From TrEMBL:
Residues 59-78 bind DNA. The keyword Transcription applies. Residues 36-96 form the HTH tetR-type domain. The keyword Metal-binding does not apply. Keywords: DNA-binding, Transcription, Transcription regulation. It holds the Pfam family TetR_N. This is TetR/AcrR family transcriptional regulator. It comes from Streptomyces lateritius. Coiled coil: none annotated. Residues 1-33 are annotated as: Disordered.
Amino acid sequence: MSRTVAESEPLMEQETRLSESQPAAAGTVRPGGRTAKVRRAVLEATEDALAATGFHALNMDHVAASAGVGKTTVYRRWGSPVGLVADLLRDMADRSLPASDTGSLAGDLRANAGLVLKTLTDPRMGAVFRAVIAAAACDEECAEALNGFYRARLEEWAPVIKRGAARGEIPPDTDGLELLRAVSAPLYYRFMITREPLGPEHAEQAVRAALTAAGGGVFTRP
């Protein structure tokens, strides 16, 4: 008979006893084998809980039960709900889709804005992002993890700005990260601050405004 994750936990604990004998910063260990399966189950359960009830109702015991993992493992490995959210953000950064290469800067930025729009308007992922942004607003560890998530995404997309500059579509000394921020910022503002409807027309408007500003040298480095 096959063993469940919970039933395999004693063996998993033996395999990872040295690395987990002291609480580690969430997400600093990249385990394999049974430990990786446990991490995946716990992070999926965390994402489910955030989507359903938000950050402030996130409960370690409930996450452990939903994941089929012993709660002692969850408390030792992640320490707190904040640790769960921080590790989830790092995992989401690792699993994010690569940047597009459409052949034009406008096309690439539209792809970027479309990806942001799809994520924020998805019933499940929109709820997850709203929860982790709320968590980051009240906890420094979550804030650092959220910053790391977006920094990784900006760095992934930075080459599209360099390619656009090489084609002469924008000034060569354009700050790519600032241009990318200008594309997504209006979408996040409507999503998180004003809670206004968010649709394709807003993504297109953000791209056109960012391209116009970049062409005028607004994002050139001093």
